[in-house]
Amino acid sequence: MAFVVPLPHGVVAGVHLPDAPEPVPELILTRLLEPERRYAEALRGYRQVQFAGGRLAVALALAELGSRRVPITSDEHGAPLFPHGVRGSISHKNDLAVALAARGELMLGLDLEDTDRERPGVAERVLTPGELDANLALPPERRWVDAVLRFSVKEAVYKAIHPALHRYIGFGEVEVWPQGDGTDRVVPRSPDLAAYTFEARHAWLGSRVLTTVKARLA
Ligand SMILES: CC(C)(COP(=O)(O)OP(=O)(O)OC[C@H]1O[C@@H](n2cnc3c(N)ncnc32)[C@H](O)[C@@H]1OP(=O)(O)O)[C@@H](O)C(=O)NCCC(=O)NCCS
Description:
This protein is of the alpha+beta class. About 35% of the residues lie in helices and about 30% in strands. The chain has a 5-stranded antiparallel sheet with strand order 5-9-8-7-6. Strands 1-2-4-3 form a 4-stranded antiparallel sheet, with helices on one face.
C-alpha cells in the first residue's frame, strides 16, 4: 500500500512496510534500480526492509514530480544523493517509509516520529533550556507531543543541512518553536547554522508527526 501527497515543501510519498525483520521478497527487490538493489541485498533485518521501502517511496515521489527515476545512492554519511535539479529526503518508522522530493536545489529534510509511546529523558536530551521551560509550562498531557514535534523538526533540520555542513549538528544548535498553525519557527543558535534560514512544517498521520524542512543560505 502506498500514498502520494503534495505538501508545501514538495511531494511526499509513503510506502507501508511489514513491521518485521523478515528478508525483503525477491519480487520487491527487483523493483529497485541496480545499485540500490545491490546495497539492499547486503542489508539484513529491519534495515533491509526500511532501505527498500525508502527507495520505493522516492521512486513514487519522483514519478509524481514527472522526474526520471534514477538510483538513489548514499554519501559517506548516509545522506541520499538525488539527481541534479531534484532534492529530497527519506525517513522510516516501523511499518512506514516516507520520502520527500521537490524540484530545485534547496536543502530538504524529512522526518517521521511516533508520539504514542512516551520515552523518558528525550525532552531533557534534545531541548535547549529555553525550549524545556516552554515544554514544562504546558499541561502535562501536552508535553510529550510537544517534545517529539521539536525533536522531529531538529532531525529534519539535520537531514537538510548535514550534506552542506559535513559535521555532526547538536540538538542545541537550533531551537524549534511550534506556531500552532502547522509551521514551526527554527532559530539557529550556532554561527554555522545562522548562515541559513529554515522553513519547517509538520502534518499528522494519526499519532505520527511528519516534518518537512526547507533550508537556504540566508
Ligand atoms: C541521521 C539521522 C538524522 C537519521 O534519523 P533517524 O530518525 O535515525 O532515521 P530516519 O528513518 O528518520 O532517517 C533515516 C534516513 O535519513 C537519511 N540520512 C541518514 N544520514 C543522513 C545525513 N547525514 N544527511 C541527510 N540524510 C541522512 C537516510 O536517507 C536514511 O535512510 P536510508 O539509509 O534508508 O537512506 C539521526 O540518526 C541522527 O544521527 N541525528 C543526529 C543528531 C540530530 O538530529 N541533531 C539535530 C540537530 S538540529
